[in-house]
């Protein structure tokens, strides 16, 4: 593996483990400049970065490098003097977190768009169908169909990819159009520095000539009043001229805190499309697409293994894939199941299951084909009393709820009722196999909710 490939793989892993702000502060303009025997030499832009990498990140860097190549035993950090100048002169786009995966292709300085994000390599499944359709339609008739187009969804689910694909597609069809992709943070810093430098007019004028304005992650505008105000005016001026506005956020407009009402209602005035979680098939399809792009072949089982274990974040899905690709390149062999497992073990940490009293009550009610409200009622009918007691028992067993709490949950019953229910079921369990089977089935259902 070349220095570049090796370091990109390390960065991709690190990015998953630290905040975007830390990542861009400490890892921007770092490189591997030398691999010799057991040692790797990393160049960093300045002494701060050197100190931080040595003291705070050396362990994780070492761990990753060593897992990629067991021969690597030590890392040296060295300051690259020439880097410093480049760093100052060169205004890197604020796309820090996405930047490194696509370093090989230049981000367009004019539009801020990354040519790697296209519709061609955007996989469509039930989870993003609506957002994709709306985005595609907007790219065909900018400003005409959905304005604004507001796309929301969790982290790493393809919002940025889709937004940029729309921009790239519009440019493909109409290269003369002025398309601008701006992450919200960059918009905010633009406003702040224009105020400081007293050239707000200039800032505004530059925005007003845009044909397609794409603002990513607008949840970051929360609480930034001055920025919101400027954005509101820009929005209106473009909107009135039928210019396309495309926005993304990690949540719907109504759930963005500290967002001025007038801006919220603007955001809600067009098309709102969400992106949810991809199903297994789509996750496999996405991995296949990534393999194709990276010109790499991995067996179907491996893609399945990754997809089954990483469900809620496509960026992490890709991170896992990169790790295996790195292994394959380095070792010149396909990792077997055991190796895959060990390579991915720190990416695949299943989140702790949090069960709520409501979930338990609902699951028990469903199991016995009752309504939740019957369970909470005062009815003494036999067919209700037993399920209610089972639910109380499970609340105690599974959640360690206190008896007074359980009583209250069941329509304000006394704690003695809860104690009685718990003891009765515990006792019956000892002699009644059917009951114990039932409770086991219910427990399984609770876990898989
Ligand atoms: P978000 O902006 O929602 O946090 P990104 O757009 O940055 O997520 O996506 C994270 C990674 O997943 C990117 O590398 C992107 O190319 C990839 N990705 C997301 N959705 C898809 C998709 N539908 N098809 C192919 N790749 C996708
Ligand atoms: Mg994004």
Can you offer a commentary on this structure?
This protein is α/β, with parallel strands linked by helices and 449 residues long. The chain has helices at 3-17, 20-27, 47-68, 81-89, 96-99, 129-140, 159-173, 184-197, 200-208, 225-240, 261-267, 280-293, 300-309, 314-331, 337-344, 357-367, 372-376, 382-399, 403-409, 415-431, 433-447; strands at 31-36, 39-44, 74-79, 149-153, 179-183, 212-216, 244-249, 271-275. Strand 6 (212-216), helix 10 (225-240) and strand 7 (244-249) form a beta-alpha-beta unit. Residues 83-104 have low confidence and may be disordered.
Question: What's the arrangement of secondary structure elements?
Answer:
Blueprint: H1 3-17, H2 20-27, E1 31-36, E2 39-44, H3 47-68, E3 74-79, H4 81-89, H5 96-99, H6 129-140, E4 149-153, H7 159-173, E5 179-183, H8 184-197, H9 200-208, E6 212-216, H10 225-240, E7 244-249, H11 261-267, E8 271-275, H12 280-293, H13 300-309, H14 314-331, H15 337-344, H16 357-367, H17 372-376, H18 382-399, H19 403-409, H20 415-431, H21 433-447
Helix pairs in contact: 1-3, 1-14, 6-7, 8-9, 8-10, 12-13, 12-14, 16-18, 18-20, 19-20, 20-21
């Amino acid at each position: 593996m070349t220095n570049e490939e090796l370091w990109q793989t390390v960065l991709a892993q690190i990015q998953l483990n630290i905040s975007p702000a830390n990542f861009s502060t400490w890892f921007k303009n770092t490189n591997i400049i030398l691999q010799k025997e057991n040692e790797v030499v990393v160049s960093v832009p300045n002494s701060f970065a050197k100190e931080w990498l040595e003291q705070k990140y050396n362990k994780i860097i070492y761990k990753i490098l060593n897992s990629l190549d067991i021969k690597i035993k030590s890392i040296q950090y060295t300051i690259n003097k020439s880097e410093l100048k480049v760093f100052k002169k060169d205004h890197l786009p604020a796309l820090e977190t996405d930047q490194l995966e696509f370093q090989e292709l230049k981000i367009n300085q004019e539009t801020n768009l990354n040519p790697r994000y296209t519709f061609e390599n955007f996989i469509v499944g039930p989870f993003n169908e609506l957002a994709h359709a709306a985005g595609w339609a907007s790219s065909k008739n900018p400003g005409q169909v959905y304005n604004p187009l507001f796309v929301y969804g969790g982290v790493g689910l393809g919002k940025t990819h889709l937004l940029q694909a729309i921009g790239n597609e519009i440019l493909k069809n109409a290269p003369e159009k002025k398309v601008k992709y701006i992450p919200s943070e960059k918009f905010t810093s633009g406003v702040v520095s224009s105020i400081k430098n007293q050239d707000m007019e200039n800032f505004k004028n530059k925005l007003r000539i845009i044909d397609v304005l794409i603002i990513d992650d607008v949840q970051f505008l929360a609480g930034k009043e001055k920025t919101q105000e400027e954005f509101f005016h820009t929005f209106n001026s473009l909107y009135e001229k039928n210019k396309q506005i495309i926005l993304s956020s990690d949540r719907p407009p109504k759930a963005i805190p500290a967002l001025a009402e007038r801006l919220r209602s603007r955001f809600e005035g067009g098309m709102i499309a969400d992106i949810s979680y991809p199903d297994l098939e789509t996750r496999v399809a996405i991995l296949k697409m990534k393999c194709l792009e990276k010109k790499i072949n991995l067996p179907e089982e491996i893609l399945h293994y990754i997809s089954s274990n990483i469900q809620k974040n496509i960026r992490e899905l890709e991170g896992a894939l990169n790790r295996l690709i790195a292994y394959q390149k380095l070792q010149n062999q396909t990792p077997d199941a055991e190796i895959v497992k060990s390579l991915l073990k720190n990416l695949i940490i299943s989140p702790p299951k949090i069960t709520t009293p409501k979930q338990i009550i609902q699951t028990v009610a469903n199991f016995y084909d009752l309504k939740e409200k019957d369970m909470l009622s005062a009815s003494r009918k036999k067919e209700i009393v037993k399920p209610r007691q089972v639910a109380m028992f499970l609340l105690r067993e599974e959640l360690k709820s206190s008896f007074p709490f359980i009583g209250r949950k069941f329509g304000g019953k006394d704690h003695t009722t809860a104690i009685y229910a718990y003891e009765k079921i515990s006792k019956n369990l000892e002699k009644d196999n059917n009951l114990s089977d039932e409770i086991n089935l219910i427990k399984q259902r609770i876990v898989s909710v």
